[in-house]
Amino acid sequence: MKSSRNVRRYDQGTLQEVPWEQMKDGAYVKAYLSACLMDGAERYVKNVRTKMEALAFDDIVLPVTINETEYENSYVCSPYTHYITYAKEELRMPMLEWILERV
Q1: What are phi and psi of 102, to 5 degrees?
Q2: Shortest CA distance to 52 belongs to which of 24, 14, 20, 80?
């Protein structure tokens, strides 16, 4: 497995510095990420409050969501919501409560 030697982080202000022509599927990824970073994720996913950035690993660019205190955020970009908030909601399910009472 080839290890990544060149990792860069890009945000709204530095997105134009990505060498898109050197990236795998560069034109496609540029169109997708540019829209999310410049317009904000909320425009495309109503229950998401997050800061979008991009990480480039050699010739691959990936979207990244950055959250700090968005505790009621969608589970798709918030580990807190995924593991804590939704878990608490699941525990309130009558069938699950019944099962857990008997364990």
Answers
A1: -100, 0
A2: 14
Nearest Cα to 36, choosing from 77, 68, 80, 86?
77
Query: Strand, helix or coil at 80?
Result: helix
d(CA 91, CA 87): 6
What's the CA gap between 48 and 41, in Å, rounded? Answer: 7
Give pLDDT tens digits for 23-36: 999 999 999 899 98
At 36, list the tokens.
Answer: 């999310």
Rounded to two decimals, the pTM is 0.68
Q: Report DSSP letters for 31-62, one per residue.
A: HHHHHHHHH-GGGT-TT---EEEEEEETTEEE
